[in-house]
Fold this protein.
Amino acid sequence: MLLVAGVDSSTQSCKVVIRDAETGALLRQGRAPHPDGTEVDPEAWWQALRSAADQAGGFADVAAVSVAGQQHGMVCLDEDGRVVRPALLWNDTRSADAAADLVEEAGGGAAGRRFWAEATGSVPVASFTITKLRWLARHEPELAARVAAVCLPHDWLTWQLAGAPGLAALRTDRGDASGTGYWSPATGDYRLDLLERAFGRRLTVPEVLGPAESAGRLPAGELGGPGGALLGAGTGDNAAAALGVGAGPGDVVVSIGTSGTVFSVADVAAADDGGAVAGFADAAGRFLPLVCTLNAARVLDAAAAMLGVGLDELAELALSAPAGADGLVMVPYLEGERTPNRPLATGAVHGLTLRTSTPAHLARAAVEGMLCALADGLDALTAQGATVRRVILVGGGARSAAVRRIAPQVFGCPVVVPPAGEYVADGAARQAAWVALGGDAPPRWTVEGTEEYAAEPVPAVRDQYAAARGLVLDRR
């Protein structure tokens, strides 16, 4: 039996799965937490990976390893490969002004957005690496002067697994490179002129590998192994999730985790100059048009905390209230928002009356508000030409019975929920299997035990949310 390892280095934790390369059967797994915050010392990720791998029995018997990681972010290295400052994560919004400046410098307004969409497939927002580089150059010039190379979280971890053999050995893949703001999915080339425009000079960047290319080998003695295991190129978490669930034509994946994402696999690169859809690449040689929201599962956490209940009880309360919560609407911009691009926005509750002042109504409004924000993303994808046959619902938030049952009413299509699992890590493992086994496509793995939910759409839910969405305020 040929074994492979998949790593999911997410915002909150590191997960490792060991699977049979040919069948995908799960054999072992491990997990370790990451520190909170929107900036983190990358060494914490490395120690978490080591701990999770140890829990999973180590890599002594695996043929290949691939790492999927939280997208965007900024890991800056000096000429000796040392980390210059804690990594800024995707959800750090301090670079919002830098994003606006980059659009303004490209002509501003529609012209500036069109420039970036055509150049890189996406309009810069605070999440992207390029905006964080601009922030660093402007606000920490002494540290910026020490930077020789920039990479992403998964790139850095793959490099560590290879023994950190020098900046020239940094490797990445199309999926994660497409979230930097200085790589073009349409052409497959870096736009180092845009990196220079943002940072003031060019930097060493990782080589972009194809989906089944190897990024090196695991050195002897590392993570319990004799050495020699192949390292996959890895990818971003959303591209890995698409591989993990086996998304195909007509499937739209909605992931409800720390962030919310809505994405589909496409044959043509997207370029939305409106900025809602990011024109990313996927992990299999195609494209992954994607909409991301900052507020997803933590909206449920916040509502449960306000009501003093657990998540299961929150779901029971939500399902006991009528669709539309009798007009109570929650706009869930609790940490600002990325789509729409309102980093300083606040959340809001509208339609509060004596009738709707109940725990059940608030619970229902929280679930519907979170889903409506994701449904806006679904609309943006269809406007870019995506076909929606069904929604595949994954992530921690998909475990909520209320989310499962209300989602078809909001999305207006059937919703398929795979069993709870680590689909980002599974996608990384499937990529590792592709590297180990070779071939023109990743091995076919089936996901057993999926459940399907269907319900009549309730347009009033989306309508009242749309009316309330424009009333939220920005922080001063």
User: Anything to note?
Assistant: The radius of gyration is 21 Å. Residues 359-383 form the longest helix (25 residues). The CA atoms of residues 87 and 369 lie 31 Å apart.
